[in-house]
# Entry
Amino acid sequence: MNDKVSGTLRQRGNKWVVYYRLNGKQNTKSLGLDVRNTPERKAKQAMNKLLQQLQEGTYELYNMYFTEYLDWWLNQVKPLIKDSTYEGYYKNVKGKIKPYFDRYKFKLLDLRPMHFTEYFVYLKDKGKSNDKGGLKKKSVMNIRGTLTSALHYAQENGLITENAALMARMPRFDDEPEYEPTIYKAEQIKQLLTYSTATNDKSSLFLHLQIYTGCRKGEILGLTW
# Structure
């Protein structure tokens, strides 16, 4: 924890500014509040919140960019979740989420549901890596799951008060046909397992595990000896 932080609220131009002393050094930070629209009472509340964050050493964490937070979050949750779950989060963050949000420079605290609604519409229309089309509903929902998990962690740790990704709206996917799974008969399953075993196919172990346990693909890939 830092030494006691004291500060003074002043006007500089049209902005409220805090002059404060931290660890023996004089510093200045703008609150980003317009004097004409923000009464002194509210500016003092914002100053006290800033001074508390500086006192606790959490200012940088509270004020990081959203894309910086995603990198920090990945490091935080890596030892807490399955490897397969982490790989899915990592792929979505690096491949889909950061390339979009990097251009906007949102702070974590600036995010609102409308920002993610716009993002989900973008994914539906132009989400493919080659910019030649959009993603299907299942892919967009998967990315939404990563975002809601990331912001839930921030909410859980007091960095934000609401999960904006969870509150955002999803676009319509009217033209997508309903998914109809292929259902194999017992004789077909027997032929499949016999063939994979006889040919020593690499998928044989995977097929046996999936058929006899009913596990999903991700669960089987996450198994360890």
